Amino acid sequence: DSGVTQTPKHLITATGQRVTLRCSPRSGDLSVYWYQQSLDQGLQFLIQYYNGEERAKGNILERFSAQQFPDLHSELNLSSLELGDSALYFCASSPRGAGGFTDTQYFGPGTRLTVL
Amino acid sequence: KNQVEQSPQSLIILEGKNCTLQCNYTVSPFSNLRWYKQDTGRGPVSLTIMTFSENTKSNGRYTATLDADTKQSSLHITASQLSDSASYICVVTNTQRNAGNNRKLIWGLGTSLAVNP
Prior knowledge:
The complex is a heterodimer of chains A (116) and B (117). By secondary structure, chain A is mostly beta strands. Helix content of chain A is 0%, strand content 52%.
């Protein structure tokens, strides 16, 4: 158990809908990272937050947004969902995350999103 | 283009045998390279992380090597166990930021390892 929790574990929704995925980092970790893992693309880094502020961006679509709250939990909002958004969404946390991504990242169990 | 390529795509070995997985990258500028183990349906677990100046790093039966000149890394697994069956993913971080504050972790597609009894 990495200490990172994600809810829900599974989510099934329809195209055009909006969903929110939630992540609680390990106790004391300030950075949260979001990843998307599709079957044929491997893991794709989406975005990182550090102590409430956006720190780095990867291949995140404009339909997706994230935020980190004062208690350090994070939410990933996915809107106008398309069939291709079906994937595993992982959250990871690390103690710092400032500069260079040299921290070890601890991954949660993931949320499996199915868009029908 | 920043890329990470892993080989082989899949590998089957017998329990107790050793194996070596390869990772070639074209990421520049380079910050660090990590190896992760991912069991099916679960989140990746970090095995090693190496920066530019490190050539070798071990974590139990896992030993990673890095040749920053040739941009190659390998993960050697010694005396394999059934629990080693997983996907092993190489991840390279580049430090360059563009105007959009994009810093990238470039993930390989992984090598799927099956250890049979």
